[in-house]
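Task: complex structure prediction.
Instruction: return structure tokens for all chains below.
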Amino acid sequence: MAPIKNGRHLFNEIPVGYPIPGKTTIYDENQTIDLDTVPLNGGILVKALSFSIDPYMRGRMRPATVESYVSAFTIGEPLGNNGVGVVLRSENSSFKPGDHVWAYFPFQEYIVQTDLTNVKILENKEKLPWSTYVGAAGMPGQTAYLGWKAYSKAKKGETVFVTTGAGPVGSIVAQLAKLAGLKVIASAGSDEKVEFMKKIGVDVAFNYKTTSTVKVLEEHGPIDIYWDNVGGETLEAALDAATNFARFIECGMISQYNQTSPYGVKVGIFPSLLLRHNILNSSLQRVQNLMNIIAKRLSIHGLLIFDHMTPENAKEFYDTVPAMIAKGDIVFLEDKKYGLDQVGEAILDVQSGKNHGKSVIVVAEE
Amino acid sequence: MAPIKNGRHLFNEIPVGYPIPGKTTIYDENQTIDLDTVPLNGGILVKALSFSIDPYMRGRMRPATVESYVSAFTIGEPLGNNGVGVVLRSENSSFKPGDHVWAYFPFQEYIVQTDLTNVKILENKEKLPWSTYVGAAGMPGQTAYLGWKAYSKAKKGETVFVTTGAGPVGSIVAQLAKLAGLKVIASAGSDEKVEFMKKIGVDVAFNYKTTSTVKVLEEHGPIDIYWDNVGGETLEAALDAATNFARFIECGMISQYNQTSPYGVKVGIFPSLLLRHNILNSSLQRVQNLMNIIAKRLSIHGLLIFDHMTPENAKEFYDTVPAMIAKGDIVFLEDKKYGLDQVGEAILDVQSGKNHGKSVIVVAEE
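Output:
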């Protein structure tokens, strides 16, 4: 067979503020691949089906010299993230053509994968659509399920506040919390998302753009658990609305990812400040700041899912969550875009909150 | 016997900024007491020996309507805190004249105590000076010992950064850390305090007023444990210098207690900010902010000692720490002032860091 186009989506330029499709990242069709003859060097040839687009990808669009928990994207090279593909050829006895695999892949139509350490064969006994494995049954689902398990210490009757409650992580957290008998307060950035949150059982669903988070938490709080995907002022409001011994799960701070100057969460407390507030507004007797960590004896945990994907936890996750999805205990939305040329738009949507549901790039249906 | 003066130190006025001796609080000699005939109503009559002056007292100098973890002082009434006294008379069979007792007492020379629930008889087998029981063998010691036990997860060879390392809590934390085989970095606000920290075995002792905390942590970090007594910019520096999975013990934020506007710990991270910093200063590639909680998977715990004084923990503390003090494994400094009229000065010293060692008001020696 003659070489065919191998479309790729490349990192082109470090953004200032929001990433710009076609500038920050670009779609490229210059590479070709001969599927029959491309050398595999003991690896596998994978045809990409679905790629995940996630908020954290913004943090990788930085100079390579800046250290962080995950490596920077390389300018001129493909972006990459978790994806699902189908094996076309294999030189490794553990993989055979037709197997569906989940791994971190570069954003291109066809991938030669030689490091097979973290390539997982998906059994998919439940016959879920393959894109599910980059969403509710993929990293967002793992984040929600294993983060909740590790840090929530949830007790029936408690109240949780979940941010980005219509998103791929937040919506699953909200559903797990309901299944555990908690009252769920959840926020999102559109009325459409609020409707979805109500559908999945959220007790107090609100649009933070039109309703004050502080007021909602005053009315429906206090909160025993805070699932933070946004940071900034919302984190401050949560510190304020927390009960004694509340647990904060810090999963993301998307309100800050595209800011050119960061928001300052106030550290102080204390009489002089309070007095000043009392003079200004005698009803403002709350203290919105980090001193709440001590006064309320909070426990705050940073969550990155890869720490929690031990073999035992991974097994529990795949034994549990796909079945819950198949049964309807966990429902979710997908925001699908078709084709690798759509990656830039999908990334911007996720950063600006325009996506409605898990953002997925569908490269091919099968 | 005729009635005698019962000197008291009263809360007089809510301060703005630092408390002012003679204005915020005042010494009062108008009350008298007849030690022979004052009714005890089933309680005990205590002669005060030593009172503790602690940083947290500043937080109680607020309007009574402002809620916090500990009640506000009442204007016109005595201040109060932990103290040691000797029983003069008793109408309760568990207490006899001559017993030395530890409890929360109002700041007055003689106290009729009817609620005996939290009054502890001090055995003092080690014959420590009684003032020790408001310091290293009192609340500061309990805070250091039980807070370290609960949250440090210390492992030999790790590095801890202790703020107020010459203070009554910090100096004990530093010594416990050394005993556990850790490298100890500790800060204080004077060269004299630095000398004391070196004496108790601190590996890297520095004066934060003349040496940059950021630079010390860059050179001698990273840090696995942060014991925070100060908050503000120091907390920010610690977030920056933390290792992955570092533990933060939030015990106090004294840098903020007397500020009229609170310090903002930056929440943002991320490329646009970093880029801007890189443009300004290419060596500044660190990120000082709360996003570190996620990126480094930090665990942050608010510590108030009274949560940890379970009967088991109290027993362990009193079985262990006084003996360590007697043996010389824990050494400490006291900053004694004599007489209840000195309370205002002592409080201001503690708030401004002028005290050198545990601040104690000695009312009587025996």
